[in-house]
Every structure is written in C-alpha cells, then in structure tokens.
Design a protein that fits this description.
Layout (H helix, E strand, L loop, with lengths): L1 H13 L7 H5 L8 H8 L2 H4 L6 E2 L5 H8 L6 E5 L5 E6 H4 L6 H4 L4 H4 L7 E2 L4 H11 L3 E5 L5 E6 H14 L8
Parallel strand pairs: 1-2, 4-5
Antiparallel strand pairs: 2-3, 5-6
Length: 178
C-alpha cells in the first residue's frame, strides 16, 4: 500500500487528471478543479462576434459616418477595402471633437482619420487568447476577421464577460451540493 500511495502522489504531481477523465476534462465536457478555464473554453469567438456593424470604405466622408452614428448605438466602426478586408477602425471617442465641426464633415475622408486596431482576432481564436489580447491592448472592442482576413464583426469585452457570467450561473460542478 505504501508503494501504491507513493506512486499515486508522484503521478499526481505530473498529471492532474485521471487517465479515464483526461480527454473529457481537456475538451470541456466535464468540469474539473479548473472550472473557470473549462467554462471559458466552452465560449466561442464565432458565436460572440457582433456581426451587425455597418462597414465603411476609406473614400467615404466623415459626413457618411456621422449620419450613421446618429442612427446606431455603436462606439466603434470598421473601414474595409473593396475585398471586405479590414483597412482600419474608427472609434467614436477618436472623432468626438470632429462631430461638432460641421465644416469638416464633407472635407474629411475616413482613410485620413481611421487607425489600425491594436489587435485583430481570427474567428477560430481560443477564448483564453482573446482575453489575453484584451488584457494586452486594454481595448473594449476588437475586430474579428474570418479565415480569409475579411471583416466579420467586433467582439466586446463586456459581451464575453456577460456570457461567461451566464455560463457560470448555469454550470454545476460534480462536487456542488444539490
């Protein structure tokens, strides 16, 4: 029994999961002591991407964007090229001062005020890497592109945490009391 106990504790130091449950735990099908990581792995960037964003062309004027801003409640806008590839982004906070200078609306092209995003995410990016990008960039919104680098939408940090909180509330661990 002593040899079996010693072997158990040695193996446990190298491998946290039982052989029978390792694949299930790693795929997120059962919750282990790493419950938060399991719940996070269940979230999909593809499902959380907000795809209802209007896109603009670099040659569009600020007037076009201002008209759109009046109709929607979005803090960030995508500028795409003819192939629908992300050319840049425009945050509402970046142009707030220009909104009240009406003489600039027709003269200013979006290509002159857009900026490169601090990070761009691919649709298949794991949620742990998505959160690392949000931490690194300190952004509230990041653009998402598909496999062909075409703009797919934006993901917000708030939306991820909202869905995460919902999953935590619904998930039950095998060790939870009834």
């Amino acid at each position: 029994m002593i040899v079996a106990s010693i072997a158990y504790f040695i193996v446990k130091g190298f491998e946290p999961y039982y052989m029978e449950t390792k694949q299930l735990a790693l795929s997120g099908e059962i919750f282990t002591h790493r419950r938060e990581q399991n719940i996070l792995s269940m979230l999909s960037l593809d499902n959380l991407t907000e795809r209802d964003h209007e896109v603009f062309q670099p040659a569009d004027s600020l007037k076009d964007l201002v008209r759109h801003i009046a109709l929607v409640d979005k803090p960030v806008f995508a500028v795409v090229d003819a192939g629908h590839r992300l050319a840049g982004v425009i945050a509402l906070n970046d142009i707030r001062g220009m909104l009240f200078e009406h003489e600039l609306h027709d003269k200013t092209l979006l290509k002159d005020i857009m900026r490169q995003p601090s990070a761009v995410l691919r649709v298949g990016t794991p949620m742990k890497a998505v959160l690392e990008q949000f931490d690194r960039t300190r952004a509230d919104y990041l653009p998402v592109t598909d496999e062909d680098a075409r703009f797919a939408g934006f993901i917000s940090k708030a939306r991820i945490f909202e869905r995460y909180r919902l999953q935590v509330a619904q998930a039950r661990d095998i060790y939870d009391d009834d």
